[in-house]
Amino acid sequence: MPSLSTLLCVVPALLQAVSAVPHINRRQTEETIPNKWIVRIEDYESLDSVLTTVLEEAGVEAIGNYSVGNVKEFNFEGDDAVLDTLQQMGAIKSVEPNTRMYSSVPMGDISARALVSQSNAPWGLGRISRKTRGSTTYTYNNSSLASDEGEHERVCVGRVIIFAIRAAKMQLEKLQLPNLSS
Fold it and tell me: Which CATH superfamily does the domain covering 20-99 fall into?
């Protein structure tokens, strides 16, 4: 019968081995782009070396890749056999299907829209509606409050998304990364 000290040594090693297997989300939906995948690699791995290994072992070349801080990802086109190969690689953190993303803007009479400004807005809120850093004035469309109930939520979510995009762009500009869109 194994001793307690032996079990205490073996259990962490087993847990580490189990956790080293990447999470691969193979679920397909209406919005999933067939055979297109996004791969996140482990924080401590080199993106270049992982891309080389993926090309050698799976025969797949990345369509695009990026690295911001410890987040390193690439996307590729491949079938289930490629996913099976990636499942065996220790450098892969997760794989998920690439999906279509949509945004919508409520259409209506432009003259009916009323922009309202709020002075001395809470910290950071002014930055959502202004490009000027340190702005304390927040401007929003008041007409959505008087229309459909769901429209107000869409406007708020849209503002948060715009804020997140601007913040991400600012961080990317600080990193001075090459243009990856080409």
Answer: Peptidase S8 propeptide/proteinase inhibitor I9 (3.30.70.80)
* All residues at 6 or more sequence positions from 17 whose CB lies less than 8 Å from its CB, including other chains: none
For the record, the structure tokens of 38 come out as 């996004």
Amino acid residing at 70: N
pTM of the entire predicted model: 0.50
Paired strand residues for 36:
77
Strands 23-24 and 92-99: parallel
Instruction: Write the pLDDT tens digit of every residue in 36-87.
Output: 999 999 989 999 999 999 999 999 999 988 888 888 999 999 998 999 998 8
- Measured CA to CA, the distance from residue 117 to residue 114 in angstroms comes to 10
- Calculate helix-pair angle for 47-58, 80-87, nearest 10 degrees: 130
Spell out the domain ranges in the chain. Answer: 20-99, 110-175
| Cα three-residue angle 7-8-11, rounded to 5 degrees | 75
